[in-house]
Amino acid sequence: GRQHVLLIWLLLYSSMVEALEPVGTTIAIGAVAVTGVLVRSMSCYFNECCQPEWISFNITKLERNLDNKLFGQHIASSIILNAVSGFMRNRNPKKPLVLSLHGWTGTGKNFVSQLIAESIYKKGMKSRFVHLFTSTLHFQHKHRIDTYEAQLQQWVRGNVTDCELSMFIFDEMDKMHPGLIDSIKPYLDYYDNLDGVSYGKSIFIFLSNEGGDNIAKTALEFWQAGKSREEIELDDLENTLSLSVYNNKNGGFFRTSLIDKNLVDFFIPFLPLEYEHVVQCAMAEMEARNLRPNRDVADRVAKEMIYTPKLDRLYSSTGCKTVQNKLNFYI
Question: What does the entry list as the binding residues for ATP (predicted)?
Fold first, then answer.
């Protein structure tokens, strides 16, 4: 196998270096350099490292997964595919890619983050270059905000130093202490490098329920006007979305310089899910468990959900979040 070839080369070059007289110092240095490359290659064969064999963008995979596994999100699907593929094609981006995903729980925000990670990193969300922060877990105490700011800067700087193709996901932004996220503002800005570290190839994704009610309100207005949800466009939502998160005194984006300085590339709305989307989630989950998708079972799961508004029973209030657990009762 490949590891045996590398090992033989390593042994040969080690022997060669030892056998050389002082007069062959230049050759020895070259041999040592080659040996170092072999050691690194060998290490990267066994362990994940910041190299193309572990990090390589697969646009086909991302497009296929968005089409087949994300339901009811035509706006999010289109923007994410274009934003991520455009960014990954750029060999010298001027700043990191910064996406902010908004919508009710269970509409697919975490799932999309996972799909993006899987399209870039061989190990997906398990990659050591993908970092997930959850506000209620990692930044619990308001009185420790100064400590959190220093830690956050250190974590981001250290991980980008380790690999410039790093991804940072911040979940529950609506529960983050206001002001905390501004501590990493310099890393998201248009700088070639800061103290020798370049952040331009990194990706930052923020997830938030904030703005979900506004998104649902717009979707409901379209429905009441007899329009299809597919007619809703980003322009119908983006401005009110950025304003609502910017003015929310209890959220992580409150009066943030990230919005002031236009450092968030896209505010991406996730629409509330309808009955048929919950059915699709249940069918997809059965397929993921290597079971034959059963429409009757999917209907039973979908009917158990709570829908809003109460009279119209239009949108699942928890999206597809509880589909996995509910499915366990029927299979």
Answer: 103-110
How far separated are the first and last CA of the chain, in Å rounded? 43
Write the CA distances from 290 to 51, 65, 123, 270, 319, integer angstroms: 33, 17, 21, 28, 23
- Summarised one tens digit per residue, pLDDT across range 108-122 is 999 999 999 999 999
Same domain as 159, residue 66: yes
pLDDT in tens, 182-222: 999 999 999 888 888 999 999 999 999 999 999 999 999 99
CB 209 within 8 A of CB 253: no
Mean pLDDT of 52-63: 97
* Mean pLDDT, rounded, for 253-267: 92
Is 86 flagged in the annotation as binding? no
Assigned domain for 51 exists: no
Q: 191 burial class (0-12, 13-18, 19+ CB within 10 angstroms)?
A: middle
Q: Is the dihedral of CA 128, 134, 138, 139 positive or negative?
A: positive
Is 103 flagged in the annotation as binding? yes
Is residue 250 a known part of a binding site?
A: no
Q: Is 105 annotated as a binding residue?
A: yes
* CA dihedral sign, ordered 159, 160, 165, 171: positive
- Structural domains in the chain (count): 3
Q: Mark whether 259 and 112 lie in a shared domain.
A: yes
> What CA–CA distance (Å, rounded) separates 285 from 298?
10
108 is in an annotated binding site: yes
